[in-house]
Fold these 2 entries.
Entry 1:
Amino acid sequence: MASGKKRVKLYGLVVSPGLARGRVCLLGRPVTVKRRSVSRDQIPKELERLNRAIEAVREDLRRTRRVIGHDLGEKEATIFDAQLLVLDDPYFRNRIESVVKDEQLAAETAIDAVVQEFASRLADAADGHLREGIEHFRDVGERLVEYLIEQSSRDPCPDRGDDLILVAEEITPTQVAHLNQRSVRGIVTGRGGATSHAAILARSLGVPMVANVRHGLRYLEPGAPVIVDAYRGIVIVHPLPRDVRLFERRQEEIAIQLAQEDEILRHPSHTRDGREVHLYANIGSPDEVEEALARGAEGIGLYRTEIHFLNRARLPGEEEQFGYYRAVAEKARPRPVVIRTLDLGGDKLGRFLRMEPEDNPYLGLRAIRISLARPELFLTQIRALLRAAVSGNVRILLPMVSTVEEVEAARRLVERAKDELSAAGIPFGRDVPLGAMIEVPSAAMLVRDLLGLVDFVSVGTNDLIQYTVAVDRGNAQVSQLYEPLNPAVLRLLDSIRKAADEAGKEVAICGEMAGDTRYTALLVGLGYQHLSMSPFFIPQVKRVILNLHYSDAQRVAARILEIPRIERIRRELRSFARRLDREARSGLEPA
Ligand code: PEP
Ligand code: MG
């Protein structure tokens, strides 16, 4: 699988877990519509073409619905019911017809224009369900246009191989549905998240999918060999022989882990010598709570609230936000849910912010800095969060804190939000714990002072690594420096945990490191008892904990804290992991 081309490692979001290896099949935009005007006497012909397209697409959607219903079940098939409703929506059809007539446009041009118009209107809608409709309008519009210009994207990949990894900026539910009949091994997209319908179908089909690799998409040229680790959200283009060997080993490990998962889920999470380590889930929308709990999460350790607001032209209002936060609180009740205030900026820019471009967005107006610069945004979110706290065990977490003053200012705004709610007679939670993320070196150095102002802290290792080592977490060229085992990071982790213990306050880790089994023993040995991760990893991390002696882990962590070189730290950890493996295999089953 090695080739002369340069190896590139990309990071994205896991939206359908699994492992896949194959060659890139690059999908363009399914259809491109050229603007075509028609003369007045051609209009009846265009309306007739539109009519025929609607009939044909209706037939095709019904067929797809039957196949998906039969193969995957009724729940998945309802996606196509929704598309049939869109197709037969009289308002949609009338609008296309009037654009054909009034603007003298060909049917496909009119469809394209109306779909764009509806999509941008829905993007601004207050109701979340309405916005979900965008995907359906786009998909139905594409089907109609394909029919009309006889350019089929129905079979999205012309390549006939049986080891294809589909790569696209975005993928539609229709394209995923057609994979059903193809041997596609994996999907990688530039945009999108876990809750798109394409992602839901990919999960049902068991096709591993990594979304949101963003600019990384340009490295995925057609035919390139690629490895997709849709457990960790990693895509390796032009893998080296050692990547392939590691991939094969991971395939074997995952098979063993999956076989043991049920057994592991039944055990409470503690080490062999009784040290409790609580495991929580990181989520990006209320839809993920059930799955998180089913995988053994003791609560939600990080709800990244900005994720589902990113593609919006306007930030949702208080009522809509309240709906999301209450849903999470209710579903998880009585377990805790840590809801993070908007972490916008960096690579996450909502269109609604309309910010000036920045030279260094990661060092710019991001997260709490935006919230404090735009108090009306922050107050809206805080009011929604305080109200949701009536329905469950809500905690508020402030991202990217770098000074004591920021926390003080945030606290004042929380108090103001409470006063506003009291004055309006709206019920809210009065004692909602407030926490700070420790993800910037200055916050790590100030953690004792910050702990005087907050009820808990949560370490965001993703950013803590990037800011401590001064390495962009998304830049493939310096990815070798993005290293959780950098001793500077480990020593910060050690001092943060000690400060929290001294203050008698809870400290968690919610960056990717918390869900990576290579680091579990080390984090437990450093004294961490609250780890939050993507739900998929919970059973694997728990498995390591169940096999571990806290006293051994403490000894290894103490030794590692003395080592200044990354490679030696890695060797030390590996040899400890091998010892644990041997013990587990020699019949010492989980306590
Ligand atoms: C982190 O930085 O570790 C973190 C959890 O926040 P995000 O990944 O959303 O920046
Ligand atoms: Mg962060």
Entry 2:
Amino acid sequence: MSKHPLFADWHPASWRGRPAAQQPHYADPDALARTIEVLGRLPPLVVSWEIEALRAKLAAAERGEQFLLQGGDCAESFDDCESDNIARRLKILLQMSLVLLQGLKKPVIRVGRFAGQYAKPRSADTETRDGVTLPCYRGDNVNRPGFTPPERAPDPELLLRGYERASLTLNFVRALIDGGFADLHHPEYWDLGFLRHTPLREAYQGIVDSIAESLEFFESMSGQRVHAATRCEFYTSHEGLHLAFEQAQTRYIARQQRWYNLSTHMPWIGMRTAALDGAHVEYFRGIANPIGVKVGAGMSAEWLQELVSTLNPQQIPGRLTLIHRFGSKHVEQRLPEMIAAVRATGARVLWVCDPMHGNTETTAGGLKTRRFENILAEVEAAFRIHEDCGSTLGGVHVELTGEDVTECVGGARGLREADLARAYRSAVDPRLNAEQSLELAMRIAQRVRSERQRGARNIK
Ligand code: PEP
Ligand code: CO
């Protein structure tokens, strides 16, 4: 159906001719096929004009005019699909975006890692405990985290349960936003308890007051209430990992004359599935959504250049976001060559820093954690390196939760390794808790503000 010569040999199932990494093994492939058939008939979760609106914003971020805040759980869980948990995730993302807006002085694009972040890549196919080997947990869309054979068996029905929960999540998010939950006039809607007794309280209140003052000033000058700028949208994203599932949501939109993945606004390709000749790159190259690609230490500059030209041959603005995740130890050494490599292709991309996945470590007690200081150090280094290379860091990609968990060490409250067991809930990667997330946003905003002041002094 796609007439463009670049896509003449592409269709939503063309990935099936390539090696597909990280796919679950279903005992009954016919049951999977039946489920995919059902999924393919269900209405979409998002529509193409929303996707295009996001792409236009990401194009503005590429030009340095907006900033992307992408965040949420490493893996959403079906159990957490309940109102309080969803509202708390929105609240912390809204608080962070408020702080970033005030510090960066540019619109913040909010993209949740939610409403479908249910499939996970894993380093091994199986897990062994006390001599028992079972399939690894691959996210709630595939199987369950409990270590028993029935829980670990991939079950196609879960894809339907996941689609329904994604839809419930998105429905609730949309209703909250439509009801004015994200209105900058009412940051008190986003109160998350911890604000009353956090060391960050005064600084946050200062930011809220300054925004209120600016709104008041603008509104009294113009005689109008600022609506357009204060009722921001939320977009969704998830790792496009389970290709049969993603294919089921891929629809041809005649008006746009392109294929779209309508299960999310912005799917991304993970580090483990970015092989050039692999099935994921084949699938992603044909969909019109803005897409992300994780860029890690294992990737060469040539590989990245090939990805850029394969995934955005028409150089469509806002199409390609490169989410680098080198870790604070490697970012200095690896990022400059990657920036240079992409520049050499002549293509424009949006550069985003994921300071989480290159900074994972395991404690002596066997818990996966990340140090706040390393997370912050990587983001700060990324800002500086992009500046030094004449490029722009246009966003951050963070694993976080609105809950008071203890999964990452450090931060204003100085969480230590010994504290982690208290409220460690993640089934996969450790997330920043609400307070640590807000602190990260504040430190980014502070840094940008002081750079701006330094720049202004130098001009004088
Ligand atoms: C993730 O984002 O949860 C993830 C697995 O990231 P990466 O592909 O960068 O390892
Ligand atoms: Co993760």
